[in-house]
Amino acid sequence: EKPKQPEKEEVKQEVKQEPPKARGKKPTKENPFYAAKLQISRLGKVDKAPGADKLFISQVDIGNGQTKQLVTGLVGHYEPEQLSNKLVVTIVNLKPAKLAGSMSEVMLLAGSTEENGKLRICILEPPKGSEVGDLVYLEGETYADDYPDQINKKQWEKVVVGLKAKGGAGTYDNIKLVTDRGVITCASLPDNSEIH
Q1: How far apart are CA 48 and CA 59, in angstroms?
Q2: DSSP element (H, E) containing 72
């Protein structure tokens, strides 16, 4: 009888969570990143979206007593109970879009990588102690004074092109995504994995 091969462990990159530095300079209006209002939100109960095998649906707490509906293609990558009541990184001012007949008003951020020809998706993790409404900004800067009420897909694509995993952290143009509580992480994603 052959000895059992130990299962391959998922390599996780440790991100040292240092106390957040004092917020830095105000962002410039020219930086497309600051058109997108990224923040920490909490998923409610997660269910399969009606009439869609590959989509989950959830009411998301975005703070100030407001909820928005999320429709996301994470079926097959996560179980509903792994997601229900989870804190996630979201964009809350992207123009709503209909997915398989259900309106999605908010989008969560996740990274993806190919492994053995299969797509693996990993949700971005907020820092410890995060609360709903914490704003996401670039390390060394601070959040914008105000955000557009809504941005369209083209404006969002200008942001997505710069979003990547680096050293276990979410980054934009190689600068870490942070909140006042620490760094946004994606520890199990290899460097240069796309975030969207």
Answers
A1: 12
A2: strand 66-72
Please tell me the number of Cα atoms within 13 Å of 110 on its side-chain side: 16
**Cα Rg of the chain (Å, integer):** 17
Helices (H), 28-170: 80-83, 153-160
Contact, 120 vs 10, CB < 8 A? Answer: no
- Kindly state the greatest CA–CA separation across the chain: 66
pLDDT in tens, 22-67: 566 666 667 899 999 999 999 999 999 998 989 999 999 999 999 9
Nearest CA to 89 among 72, 71, 108?
A: 108
Our separate counts of H helices and E strands in the chain read 2, 15
Report in angstroms the alpha-carbon separations of 89 from 11, 25, 50, 196. Answer: 22, 22, 24, 11
Give residue-wise pLDDT tens across range 73-126: 999 999 999 999 999 999 999 999 999 999 999 999 999 999 888 999 999 999
CB of 127 closer than 8 Å to CB of 183: yes
Q: In a 3-state reduction of DSSP, which class is residue 97?
A: strand
